[in-house]
Amino acid sequence: MDLVDVGYGRRAHGIGGEVVVRPQTDDPDRWVVGASFITDESPPRTLEVTALRPHHDDLLVRFAGIDDRDGADALRGTVFQIPATDRRPLGDAEFWPDDLIGATALGPEGQTLGTVTGVEFGDAQDRLVIETADGSRVEVPFVSAIVPAVDLEARVITVTPPDGLF
Q1: Which residue, among 87, 89, 77, 73, has the nearest Cα to 6 in the 3D structure?
Q2: Domains in the chain, please, with CATH?
Q3: Which residue from 161, 103, 113 is spatially nearest to 136, judged by alpha carbons?
Q4: Backbone angles phi, psi at 72, to 5 degrees
Q5: Residue 54 in contact with residue 104, Cβ under 8 Å?
Q6: DSSP annotation string for the chain
Q7: Residue 22's beta-bridge partner residues?
Q8: Chain segment 10-64, per-residue pLDDT in tens
Q9: How is residue 153 annotated by DSSP?
Q10: Contact between residue 18 and residue 61 where contact means Cβ atoms under 8 Å apart
Q11: How far does CA 159 lie from the centroid of its chain?
């Protein structure tokens, strides 16, 4: 089963079992009371959310069976995942970051610019991280004026970079 990350435990909060969780999802309905997540622990376990509330850029989450500070602190660094098939449907011109990673970035004349190795999220726009043949790392604004085409089937992303970007 393919799993995708939707958050991770940062630390315990207080003594009652709350965990500070950094959500990693653009679906605001993902983190709700009753939601279940699979941990990246070995062996993995499924944890159900019994309560949550906002806390700065994070969430304070109570999971069933986690009732004290030690149990909450044991989730520090734990990644919470869901099956890839449980992700929300994508709209037009939306992509999952993990579908973009590994794609070949081609310039407007078809020349290879590099390979997408990551996606950086930003307030103004997201950026594709492209590693060039010489090992350089270039962050390309993921906007239609610079990235006019994404072909997930062919694993190719067309980039029309401004002068000096590469």
Answers
A1: 87
A2: 3-86 (2.40.30.60), 97-158 (2.30.30.240)
A3: 113
A4: -70, -45
A5: no
A6: --EEEEEEEEEEETTTTEEEEEE--S-TTSS-TT-EEEESSSS--EEEEEEEEEETTEEEEEETT--SHHHHHTTTTPEEEEEGGGSPPP-TT---HHHHTTPEEE-TTS-EEEEEEEEE--SS--EEEEE-TTS-EEEEE-STTT--EEETTTTEEE--PPTT--
A7: 8
A8: 999 999 999 999 998 878 789 999 999 999 999 999 999 999 999 998 999 999 9
A9: T
A10: yes
A11: 22
Provide the token pair at 26. Answer: 């653009």
pTM of this structure: 0.71
Q: Length of the chain, please? A: 166
Amino acid at site 86 = D
